[in-house]
């Protein structure tokens, strides 16, 4: 008869001891218990424990230094600085320094905590029976006792160097988040209220890049200008021209209706901000018969013969005017900055 016909014959034979007696386990699900505890070198040698303590303190101290480096990098590196780092190639110096320092700060706190737990905290395994979810007063008392015992075994009270450096690292690393809040955007301060125009700055023709003379501006023409000293290859040119852009037209003095406009003009030459007061689009359409300028984005229309007031469209207020004059050499120059912020309306205008 084959083993397939008699399955009992294919079962493994029962193992016997030296006397041929079979060893049986009456409870195959019995708790095998925990393996015997093996002490670490730090448990036996205080010098090894001191070495581990110094390692943990070093990691926490390194975390503090990295956090300080994070804050210093945020202040020291400009946002547009690019450096070459092998093998990454050309990268942002600010992003690289912030990522490296913050990563080191967080890694050292974690590595220090792990090394502390693995070498100095008690590693004796304690088994506890399952208990009902609702805690009894006895269980609560036991939890508190275990907590106190764990705190005592962690040696946090005795290892003052670890405690001090850990608290220092944990206290400093949140500052990284505070500094990151500063990166939500640049503080505008008064930069939105002022431009590069100032008394004595020449009006530079944006087409010829030459200073403008009064005779260069003829009746019916529209000229775009920018302040002296601003160059198109400057890294912040687009930021500045977004506020400094100027349009110049010449109107017969008797056709100027606004008294202030006549006083701020020079022989009928008026200078207004080119930036629409609706959403900041550049104005470029001029109708010489009516002296109206039109914003191509949303059709806001301004009357340059009447203080550049709004006569149509969603713009909220008139275009700011720049007071101009002529210097001793006959060149048009600014006599100050705009008397109000250029561009879209500020919220406090509402």
Automatic annotation (TrEMBL):
Example of a GO cellular component annotation carried by this entry: plasma membrane
Protein name: Cytochrome bc1 complex Rieske iron-sulfur subunit
Ranges of biased composition (kind: Basic and acidic residues): 16-27
Coiled-coil regions listed in the entry: none
Family affiliation: Belongs to the Rieske iron-sulfur protein family.
Domain called Rieske: residue spans: 269-333
Cell inner membrane in keyword set: no
Region (Disordered): 1-40
Database matches in PANTHER family: CYTOCHROME B-C1 COMPLEX SUBUNIT RIESKE, MITOCHONDRIAL
């Amino acid at each position: 008869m084959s083993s397939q016909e008699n399955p009992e014959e294919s079962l493994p034979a029962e193992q016997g001891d030296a006397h041929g007696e079979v060893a049986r386990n009456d409870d195959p699900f019995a708790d095998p218990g925990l393996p015997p505890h093996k002490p670490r070198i730090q448990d036996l040698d205080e010098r090894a424990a001191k070495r581990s303590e110094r390692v943990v303190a070093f990691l926490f101290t390194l975390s503090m230094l990295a956090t300080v480096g994070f804050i210093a990098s945020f202040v020291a590196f400009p946002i547009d600085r690019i450096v070459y780092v092998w093998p990454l190639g050309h990268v942002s110096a600010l992003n690289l320094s912030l990522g490296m320092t913050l990563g080191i700060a967080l890694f050292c706190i974690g590595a220090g905590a792990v090394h502390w737990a693995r070498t100095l905290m008690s590693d004796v395994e304690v088994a506890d029976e399952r208990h009902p979810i609702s805690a009894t007063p006895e269980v609560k008392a036991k939890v508190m006792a275990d907590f106190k015992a764990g705190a005592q075994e962690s040696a946090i009270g005795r290892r003052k160097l670890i405690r001090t450096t850990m608290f220092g690292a944990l206290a400093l690393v949140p500052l990284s988040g505070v500094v990151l809040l500063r990166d939500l955007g640049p503080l505008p301060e008064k930069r939105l209220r002022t431009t590069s125009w100032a008394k004595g700055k020449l009006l530079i023709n944006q087409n010829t890049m030459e200073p403008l003379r009064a005779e260069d501006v003829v009746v019916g023409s529209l000229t775009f200008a920018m302040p002296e000293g601003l160059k198109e290859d400057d890294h912040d040119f687009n930021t500045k021209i977004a506020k400094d852009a100027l349009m110049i037209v010449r109107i017969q003095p008797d056709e100027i209706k606004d008294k202030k406009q006549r006083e701020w003009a020079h022989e009928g030459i008026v200078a207004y901000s080119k930036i629409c007061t609706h959403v900041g689009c550049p104005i470029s359409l001029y109708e010489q018969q009516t002296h109206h300028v039109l914003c191509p984005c949303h059709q806001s229309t301004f009357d340059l013969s009447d203080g550049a007031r709004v006569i149509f469209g969603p713009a909220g207020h008139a275009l700011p005017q720049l007071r101009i004059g002529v210097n001793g050499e006959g060149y048009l120059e600014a006599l100050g900055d705009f008397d109000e912020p250029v561009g879209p309306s500020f919220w406090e205008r509402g």
